[in-house]
Specification:
301 residues; alpha/beta; Rossmann fold; two-stranded antiparallel sheet; 8 strands
Length: 301
């Protein structure tokens, strides 16, 4: 089989597999209407364990003036450099990698953090005011508020007057939570304890949460500082990037500029364990300055 024929077969297999995973194929392979919940379990025409192998990722530009310079650029950035084209279209292997990265980004948004993960990390699960994922994605304001049930759980299981309240928020990437929090959270707690900072006894996991959901939690518990570990909007470079948002004593007048943020936490950016140690030091500084966000940055100049 020629290389082009093999690539064409890979494309067909990849498309069928993706359609089947989303429940858009019936038993005979005919396309159906898209389903409301793309992540729901559906009978698959292609087994998920059928891996598709691609050629090694290398420079595809034919006869480049300087192959080593292109490779040096590729080592310095995750951007798609040296992928070349076939006529007006991308090369097949480049297109397949794009589809794979796009699928990973979709999975990060539409897949829930597992209950086993939440239990293993001893997190207290609550939910924002968003009733389901559709509402979370289409009405961002609902993800910034707590449901009545969540507020009651915070009152019952939260610790009043702690110096630091930690939240884990799914945000727009469940993948980021499961990939980074197991290393980041222990490093953060250990760093805070080593500095004599009182950390709330309960760490809440907030489903369908946005950044601002940290504000009502802080106000309910009278926390001095709240830090949210939240999944970032996934892209085509990585679907596993996490951010940490820190706010000092938020109230009804808090704005985005009042928050301090450390982003790009993942294995290809800031390693999660290293981020945990850095955030512990940063929280100590914010507690000492009694401000966060732009005012904190100005106070350190």
């Amino acid at each position: 089989m020629s290389t082009d024929s093999a690539f064409e077969k890979l494309i067909v297999e990849n498309v069928i597999k993706e359609l089947a995973r989303k429940g858009m194929l019936d038993g005979g392979g005919a396309a159906q209407q898209p389903l409301a919940q793309p992540t729901a379990a559906r009978p698959s025409a292609v087994s998920d364990d059928q891996a598709i192998s691609l050629p090694p990722d290398d420079v595809l530009v034919p006869d480049p003036v300087s192959l080593e310079e292109i490779r040096a650029m590729r080592r310095a950035t995750p951007a798609r450099i040296g992928i070349w084209r076939a006529g007006a279209r991308p090369k097949t292997v480049s297109w397949l990698r794009f589809l794979a990265d796009h699928a990973a980004a979709q999975d990060a948004v539409f897949t829930d953090v597992s209950g086993e993960f939440i239990q293993r990390l001893n997190l207290v699960p609550i939910q924002s005011a968003a009733r389901d994922r559709d509402e979370f994605l289409t009405r961002p304001g609902q993800g910034r508020k707590l449901s009545e049930a969540a507020a009651q759980t915070v009152r019952e299981k939260g610790q009043q007057n702690a110096q630091v309240q930690i939240l884990v928020v799914d945000g727009l990437s469940s993948s980021a939570i499961e990939a980074n929090v197991p290393d980041l959270l222990p490093a953060l707690v250990q760093g805070l304890n080593a500095q004599g900072i009182k950390v709330a006894s309960s760490t809440f996991f907030i489903k369908y949460g946005r950044v601002w959901v940290q504000d009502p939690v802080a106000m309910l518990l009278n926390s001095e500082v709240v830090i949210s570990l939240i999944g970032e909007r996934p892209g085509l470079v990585t679907a596993d990037s996490l951010s940490a948002y820190i706010i000092y004593r938020p109230d009804a007048n808090t704005v985005e500029a009042d928050r301090t943020v450390i982003s790009n936490i993942h294995k290809g950016g800031i390693p999660p364990a290293e981020a945990g140690a850095h955030l512990a030091t940063l929280l100590k500084q914010i507690l000492a300055a009694k401000v966060s966000g732009v005012r904190f940055t100005q106070s350190t100049k």
